[in-house]
Structure formats: structure tokens, C-alpha cells
Specification:
Blueprint (H helix, E strand, L loop, with lengths): L3 H14 L9 H5 L4 H5 L9 H20 L22 H23 L11 H30 L2
């Protein structure tokens, strides 16, 4: 019998990352069509780029997955944590790699959430619910920031 909490959380994760949502563009839709030049652009020195937003989101998907599974630190593909300083001038290859990293981390997070409760109607802990719903909200938050960066980039002189 399916775990309705897990099913609901998977639906929420997907809606905020790559499935249609009532609120507008999700995280994946917010980066769709962005090229490397735009992804590396900063509105001001010291502000985060679209690429940094995407890698940051990938990192926190990794953190939530690791915490859900009780895994140790150290397996994120990039060196560092939280905000990664990326070059302003990205190659298309590097930008594609960052997008792939985000997609992979989402898939791995989904797998971890799907495995909770062993497919039974086992109630999840408040901490599990908080982390999973929080990472979904995190995706929508950064989708909005990326949409704003896109608008600023497209309207710049």
C-alpha cells in the first residue's frame, strides 16, 4: 500500500522543480533557455548569478538527501558548500554541467524520499516533513530569484 505522505511529498518536490505548477515557472523552467553568458552574469559585483543559484539549489538537494539517509558529508561533486563562487564567464559546457548536476541531485533526492517508510503507511517524522517540504519551497524561492535575474539581464543597457 502506498505511503500517502511520501506520494504527496514527491508530488510537491516535482511540482516545485520540473512539473506544471499553478504558481508559475518552477526551478527547472526558470533556467530553461538560459545560455552560458546570461547564466554567469551578475547584476552587481558580489551578487549571485543564475548559475550560482542553480548550483546552490543542487547543493541543498544533496544536503537534504544526505540528512534523510544519515549519510556523511563529502560526496557532493563540487568542492565547497552552500554558495559556490563560479566564474562570470561560463562556457556552454560548464553551464550544461551545472544544469545536469541540478537534475541529478533532484533525481537522487526523489529516490531518497521515495524510499522513506519502505512503501508502507508509516508516518514520517516532523523533521523529515520539514526538510522535504522545505527543499521544495527552496526550489520555488530560487526559481523566483532566477526569473528576476533574467528580467534584469534582459532589460540591462
Amino acid at each position: 500500500m502506498a505511503n500517502t505522505q511520501v506520494d504527496t511529498l514527491l508530488f510537491l518536490l516535482d511540482q516545485c522543480y520540473n512539473r506544471p505548477a499553478w504558481h508559475g515557472p518552477n526551478l527547472n523552467a526558470s533556467i530553461r533557455g538560459v545560455g552560458a553568458k546570461q547564466a554567469g552574469w551578475r547584476p552587481q559585483p558580489g551578487r549571485h548569478s543564475i548559475a550560482e543559484q542553480a548550483v546552490h539549489a543542487a547543493y541543498w538537494k544533496y544536503v537534504v538527501r544526505r540528512r534523510l539517509r544519515g549519510e556523511k558529508r563529502g560526496s557532493f561533486p563540487l568542492e565547497g558548500s552552500n554558495w559556490f563562487l563560479l566564474p562570470d564567464k561560463l562556457t556552454e559546457r560548464a553551464w550544461n554541467d551545472y544544469q545536469q548536476l541540478l537534475a541529478e541531485q533532484h533525481t537522487l533526492l526523489r529516490q531518497a524520499v521515495a524510499g522513506l517508510g519502505g512503501g508502507r503507511r508509516t508516518a514520517l517524522t516532523k523533521d523529515q516533513l520539514r526538510r522535504i517540504s522545505g527543499i521544495a519551497a527552496h526550489d520555488v524561492y530560487h526559481a523566483g530569484q532566477i526569473r528576476l535575474l533574467r528580467a534584469l539581464y534582459e532589460g540591462r543597457a
